[in-house]
Write a structure and sequence with these properties.
It comes from Pichia membranifaciens NRRL Y-2026. The protein is an alpha/beta fold and about 160 residues long. It is about 45% helix and about 15% strand.
Length: about 160
């Protein structure tokens, strides 16, 4: 069979992957990863083919949906919003830190900003990368959409 990885697919580490929202053409590729957990940090709720595909997997796949709101200016202006975002990210980091959840796929809609922030925090907090390397990788996936507020958020989280 021919395999087509999802948009902006990348390997974060062994058995930890990132990408944009999978489409039907990507399902055979994702099946080859033998995923145990999928973390979705985007805001789509109507991709029924995708949700049915997850349910049809021979081994149960845990699905974690945390619709991250990266309006960081609004979060900075509101303690409640900032606390909610921090709680969401701490939860996601805890899921990633638990080895029983592997192999894991983390995805957003396009695999750029939301998943980029999550992966940047994994790199910084769980893997000990220096910020320059974290920013470099973030920029490669975000392409021209690199946002200084997101970089500051990563730095101070």
């Amino acid at each position: 069979p021919r395999y087509f990885p999802p948009l902006n697919f990348g390997v974060v580490e062994s058995d930890l992957y990132r990408c944009g929202h999978p489409q039907v053409i990507n399902f055979p590729f994702l099946e080859s990863l033998k995923l145990r957990t999928i973390i979705y940090v985007g805001d789509k709720t109507n991709n029924w083919d995708y949700y049915r595909w997850i349910q049809r997997q021979p081994q149960p796949v845990g699905f974690v949906h945390v619709p991250l709101d990266l309006d960081l200016a609004a979060a900075a202006a509101s303690d409640a919003s900032a606390a909610a975002t921090a709680a969401q990210l701490n939860y996601l980091l805890a899921v990633v830190a638990h080895s029983a959840n592997y192999p894991i796929l983390i995805h957003s809609n396009k695999g750029k900003h939301r998943v980029g922030v999550v992966v940047a925090l994994i790199r910084k907090l769980l893997q000990g990368w220096v910020l320059a390397a974290v920013y470099d990788e973030y920029g490669k996936y975000a392409k021209h959409g690199k946002d200084n507020s997101e970089l500051q958020f990563i730095e101070f989280f």
